[in-house]
Specification:
By secondary structure, the protein is mainly β. The strands form 2 sheets. It has a 5-stranded antiparallel β-sheet, with no helix packed on it. A 4-stranded antiparallel β-sheet has the order 5-4-8-9, with no helix packed on it. Helix content is 9%, strand content 44%. A hairpin with a 4-residue loop joins strand 6 and strand 7.
């Protein structure tokens, strides 16, 4: 590879143009790591623009599908290919109806592959789940 080709490749990788893994699980509904909970992430109805604050919802149920009330969450995440975390400190701010919780303070600072990690502390015990999402560049509203 010539020096100029290496520089172009490095620039593309730095700009967020790396392709995510081919088998990346983009499911927004899955079992937690130890199978204690069923967790579903509900994104905003309209995809937010880059660097725009937005909220998601988290639906939490037992392994049998019964809505879970009274759970606490820690939220983490970031861009695995870039080695940085989320640009904000999102958190679950309130419990809503039927095992649904408001996840506020989300923001994506660039396009690409993001992970959203939830540590769950609920009546059935502690568990965790990681979701993957691909952020594109929707126009600002």
């Amino acid at each position: 590879m010539t020096i100029s080709a290496a520089l172009v490749t490095a620039a593309l990788m730095t700009a967020g143009c790396m392709a995510p893994p081919k088998n990346l699980d983009l499911s927004l509904a899955k079992k937690s790591a130890s199978g204690v909970y069923q967790v579903e992430l509900l994104p905003p109805a309209q995809a937010p623009a880059i660097n725009q604050m937005h909220s998601w919802k988290v639906k939490l149920a037992t392994a049998e599908g019964v809505p879970v009330r009274g759970a606490k969450f820690l939220v983490d995440g970031g861009m695995p290919q870039h080695g940085h975390g989320l640009p904000t400190q999102p958190r679950v701010t309130r419990e809503m109806e039927g095992g649904t919780y408001a996840l506020d303070g989300m923001k994506f600072s660039m396009t690409g592959w993001w992970e959203m990690k939830l540590a769950i502390d609920g009546p059935q015990g502690a568990d965790k789940v990681t979701f993957n999402t691909m952020v594109t560049n929707p126009s600002a509203r």
